[in-house]
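U., I forgot to send this yesterday:
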Amino acid sequence: MFELKPIDKASIPRAIEKAERYRLLNEPVEAESICRDILDVDPQNQKAVIVLLLALTDQFETGIPVTDAQSLLGWLQSEYDKAYYAGIICERRAKALMDVGSHGSGFIAYDWFLQAIRWYERATTLRPKDNDDAILRYNTCVRILQRNPDLKPSADERIELPLE
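Result:
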């Protein structure tokens, strides 16, 4: 069978540019592959981790598990980045659920948006000076919830069974 070929470390900046471009072209599978090649030769490359995480979230509608993106949070070195990108993962999962629109997805999407909002609140407390990205994302989530009344918490319908 075929074996993967390693890339040269010197080519990493150009490879990251390509990965970002593929994401913009809505080709996240290609971006994911490039980032994995980068991380094979430079496992600490924060930019590649972030682009890979985003490329995976771009694929949520195709069935990529959320845990694939969440597993990359531990690779991030900055506490701000961990909180901010945890919020991104939750927000994008919520949006993917909204697009699917299956029975009960509104309740589940609401829960994901709520998690995103909490992560963005945390990121806001950790943000670097002059960086309001977490606030911008927080506000986006709030506006989505305000504009979509079908996104709401589920009624707690737990039934207590008697103990015998």
